Amino acid sequence: MRTSFDLSPFARSTVGFDRMLRLLDGVAGAGEAPSYPPYNIVKTGEDQYEIAVAVAGFGEDELEVKVHDGQLTIMSRPEKAGTEEAAYLHRGIARRAFELRFSLADYIEASGAHVENGMLHVELVRNVPEAKKPRTIAIGKADSKKALPGKQAA
Fold it and tell me: Which domains does the chain carry?
């Protein structure tokens, strides 16, 4: 059952929040999260995160990680291992193509990726520009010789 939310009142009274409204609209209509392949999202530090995806059976050359316009995409393009299909008695390791998408918050960047023990690890870090970080403004003493705006100096 899909619950529909009308976000148009927010769009009429805000400026510059288009991306956030699209994200909220996407979450409301997304339904269930993808179940293949399984993945974890871990906070590894104050401004560091990691997405770990189970990619057993995939080679590094069959995986692709892209970041574009605030969206991280992890996908696979499994190669066929020959023209003949093997006669499996039991096939429990899936090797089908997949695509996972993650919306990244402002200033989150992918800093690297590696495959280890059947897991793809994508490291993410928040790099806030110096101009956007909080800063303290020094409070000085008032200069008695300066006239206040709109007042005449005596």
Answer: 36-128 (2.60.40.790)
Walk across the sheet containing 71-76 and list its strands: 63-68, 71-76, 99-103
* Per-residue confidence (pLDDT) for residue 86, from 0 to 100: 75
The upper half-sphere exposure of residue 117, i.e. CA atoms within 13 Å in the direction of its Cβ, equals 1
> How far is 54 from 116, CA to CA, in rounded Å?
10
Distance CA(67)–CA(75), nearest Å, equals 12
Give the Cα separation of 45 and 39 in Å (integer): 19
Instruction: Read off the pLDDT of residues 31-59 as tens digits, 9 standing for 90 and up.
Output: 556 678 999 999 999 989 999 999 998 98
